[in-house]
Design goal:
Helix content is 43%, strand content 17%. By secondary structure, the protein is an alpha/beta fold. It has an 8-stranded mixed sheet with strand order 3-2-1-4-7-6-8-5, sandwiched between helices. The radius of gyration is 20 Å and the shape is globular.
Amino acid sequence: MTSPTPKLSIGLPVYNGENYLAEALDTLLAQSFEDFEVMISDNASTDRTQEICEAYARRDARIRYARLSENRGAAYNYNRVFEETSAPYFKWAAHDDLCEPTFLERCVEALDSAGADTVLSYTAAVTIDGEGAPIVPDPYASGDFLRPQSDFAPARLVHTLRKMSMVNAVFGVIRRDALRKTRLIGPFVASDYVLMVELAMLGRFTRLDEPLLLRRKHPEGSRHEANPTLADVAAWFHGGDRKAPVLSPRLRLTLEYLRSTSSAELPLATRLACTAVVLPTLAERRLRVTAGRWRRRLLRREDALA
């Protein structure tokens, strides 16, 4: 069971999560690793979320529940659950995702054995639908191959910029002392990408090939399903009115990468080297994406003519 000072804090930000919240909490409480606390921050939900959370908090002393008086946006809520906890290891949990029973055990073991220069451990993921059935083909299957392992921070940064896609790693287990050195989740589109870059500059990631995380894709999903426009996604991150971003998401993301490299808690020479590789790596990635898109178009055209 959990100790007075648990080894792991789990932060669960939620807004109107009544459909899947209980199932997500059940999979956390069923974990083989038990030395954890769960901090739930409710972003002023208007459904049964409060009722569900209060029932689970009464049921298990490891669960704490707090409710905001107004919706402050996903970024604020994600950061709040980190700031309100203190265990040396931290994990974000989505209210609609599920974890297999050994997820925490395997990730904690991986961090324990890897040493302090590894800042994050996570597992492969499977995409499930609203009923919990696997989706085939899996849209996340090729999206979680972040394994920055180099001793050289700029090399880890390049690897991360090249490999990021669905960023399943954000739901892994992270060393608190490393996460505290980042800007956490920013109030802008794709700020989880920026967080991965900041963590990669600080240390290595370990990816376990066992698919122990089940990520749910459903019509009420908090990101692109329920928020189809860029203005919607931006409002989901920062809260408030759904106004179109002043900068394009790609330009904003590039500027945030550069801000991260220039302000990282690293020696000056390392920061300069990290900053120097950002634009060339992004340009290379863009070329690869564009080339892949044209290749798929040509293949479809050939199939149509066959």
